[in-house]
From TrEMBL:
It is a multi-pass membrane protein. This is Nicotinamide riboside transporter PnuC. Keywords: Cell membrane, Membrane, Transmembrane, Transmembrane helix, Transport. It is found in: Cell membrane. NCBIfam families: NMN_trans_PnuC. GO terms for cellular component: plasma membrane.
Length: 224
């Protein structure tokens, strides 16, 4: 069995429950991406992409010959959007550093117009996502659509440097934890709890940074 086949099929038993190794590893990459993002390091994006690829295989396992009891197409779909938006964010942050900025992104509050745009996009994405996910037979399409929509908006907000993106993630986690527990994706549910706590810290950190950098130039940081 090669490494890819092993990763697709390997399980570990914890507390009497079998957990997918790729689900655990994918979430570890996701958490690492969030930590790097809080420090505003460019490497947050490629690290996150690796996690996206692994988690995509978890939520639509049947495609990879590893059928699951419940396919969460919204969870899988958000990994695809993450991948696309991560390429965009990677490019944005890299270009900022490449042009001599001390940091990859400078946190700021979204303007009133930008918030309205996010709200309008969010409503449209949720409506489309709900009907598409229900048609695909996704488990819990109304909640799955909420998570998909919020995840897209949060990732876009991170790429743009909006402080509010942390709050969007918290809203996603509040729905994601109970959904994933009911669907028995326990490693992902546990990671959502950790993400939620981390997002509170990240929000406070970026809020302080944007207050500080409004009056003083940002200090140089190591490029990730």
């Amino acid at each position: 069995m090669n490494a890819i086949e092993w990763l697709l099929h390997a399980h570990v038993t914890i507390g009497g429950s079998e957990l997918r190794v790729r689900e655990i590893v994918g979430n570890v990459f996701g958490l690492a991406s969030a930590l790097l993002g809080m420090r505003r390091l460019v490497s947050a994006w490629p690290v996150g992409i690796i996690g996206n690829v692994l988690l995509f295989t978890v939520f639509v396992g049947g495609i990879f010959g590893t059928p699951e009891d419940k396919d969460l197409w919204g969870q899988a779909g958000r990994q695809v959007f993450f991948f696309v938006l991560s390429v965009y964010g990677w490019y944005q942050w890299y270009q900022t550093r490449h042009h001599g900025a001390a940091v990859a992104v400078r946190p700021r509050w979204a303007t009133g117009r930008e918030r309205l745009e996010l709200l309008g996009i969010g409503v449209a994405l949720y409506a489309i996502g709900f009907f598409v996910l229900r048609a695909l037979g996704s488990w819990g399409p109304q909640w799955d659509a909420w998570i998909l929509t919020g995840s897209i908006l949060a990732t876009y907000g991170m790429a743009r440097g909006y402080v509010e993106f942390w709050l969007i993630w918290i809203a996603v986690d509040l729905v994601g934890v109970p959904l994933l527990i009911q669907a028995e994706f326990y490693p992902s549910a546990a990671m959502y709890v950790i993400y939620g706590l981390f997002c509170v810290v990240g929000f406070a950190s970026w809020w302080k940074i944007q207050n500080r950098e409004r009056v003083t130039p940002p200090e140089a940081v190591v490029v990730g």
